[in-house]
Amino acid sequence: MMRSMEGPASVLFSEDEIRARVRELGATISRDYAGRDPVLISVLKGGAVFLADLIQAIDLNLRTDFMSISKYEEGDDDSGVVRILKDLDQDIGGDHVIVVEDIVDTGLTLSYLLSALEARNPASLEVCALLDKSARRIAPLDIRYRGFDCPDRFVIGYGLDYEERYRNLPFILEVDLEVLARDPLALVPYLEGERGPRR
Predict the structure, then answer these.
(1) 16-150 has which CATH code?
(2) What mean pLDDT comes out for the span 104-119?
(3) What is the spatial distance between Cα 187 and Cα 8, in angstroms, rounded to a whole number?
(4) What amino acid positions are annotated as catalytic residues?
(5) Domain ranges in the chain?
(6) HEC states along the chain?
(7) Does residue 45 have a cis peptide bond before it, meaning omega lies within 30 degrees of 0?
(8) Burial of 47 per CB tally in 10 Å (0-12, 13-18, 19+)
């Protein structure tokens, strides 16, 4: 539930709401994968914060791994084709894999990534996304584990950034992008606890 706030941003999901939802997702994954040892893969950098909290909520003998991919070139965003900058450190053949994403919007990049992972013959392949910006979806995707449905707004915090800033906010803000474009430091007061609840 969005809360109104004076200034260039409003709290979309509070720290408490995120914490509770991550616990719920972890409990569900623990039940669904009971007796199995899943591999959770995060796409750097945004998903790392979510992954760190999520694995602590999963009561299984899991493994983690990371990938880093390049953004598609401007003007060529219809394909979703990306370049892998950092590949997995481990073979996932025969493993039960969960791709952990901070946010899914058009789904083009994720769809391409899933195809690339599927070619490595995992036993199963699912997606866990903290935020699903379904209003922007282009590529059809089956997101088995979804934290929150996200409105079609620019959001930062809890791993999501603006020019590499604000990933360390413990909540998620809906932001006036024009304000940030004029002043990238406009949200520093939120980091300092001067605006909005940290809990």
Answers:
(1) 3.40.50.2020
(2) 92
(3) 8
(4) 105
(5) 16-150
(6) CCCCCCCCEEEEECHHHHHHHHHHHHHHHHHHCCCCCCEEEEEECCHHHHHHHHHHCCCCCCEEEEEEECCCCCCCCCCCCCCEEECCCCCCCCCEEEEEEEEECCCHHHHHHHHHHHCCCCCEEEEEEEEECHHHCCCCCCCCEEEEECCCCCEEECCECECCECCCCCCEEEECHHHHHHCCCCCHHHHCCCCCCCC
(7) yes
(8) buried
**CB of 89 closer than 8 Å to CB of 41:** no
- Summarize pLDDT for 156-186 with one digit per residue, the tens: 999 999 999 999 999 999 999 999 999 999 9
Question: Which amino acid does the sequence have at 149?
Answer: D
The winner for highest mean pLDDT among 5-19, 60-74, 133-147 is 133-147
